[in-house]
Amino acid sequence: MDKNLTMEKLVNLCKARGFVFQGSEIYGGFANTWDFGPVGVELKNNIKKAWWKRFVQEDPMAYGVDAAILMNPRVWEASGHVQSFSDPQLDCKSCKYRFRADNLIEEKFKDVDVERMTTKEMEDYINEHKIKCPHCGNFNWTPIRQFKLMFETSRGTVEGEKDIVYLRPETCQGEYVNFLNVQRTMRAKVPFAIAQIGKSFRNEITPGNFLFRTVEFEQMELQMFCHPNESMDIYNKYKERAMNFVEELGLTKDNLRFHDHEKLAHYAKAACDIQYQFPIGWQELNGIHHRGDWDLSRHSEFSGKNMEYLDPYTNEKYLPNVIEYSIGADRLTLAIMSEAYEEETLENGETRVVMHFKPFLAPFKVAVLPLQKNLSEKAKEVYKILSKEFMCDYDEAGSIGKRYRRQDEIGTPYCVTIDFDTLENNTVTIRDRDTMEQIRLPIQDLVSYIQKAIKF
Ligand code: GAP
Question: Domains in the chain, please, with CATH?
Answer without folding.
Answer: 7-82+149-337 (3.30.930.10), 86-147 (3.30.40.230), 364-453 (3.40.50.800)
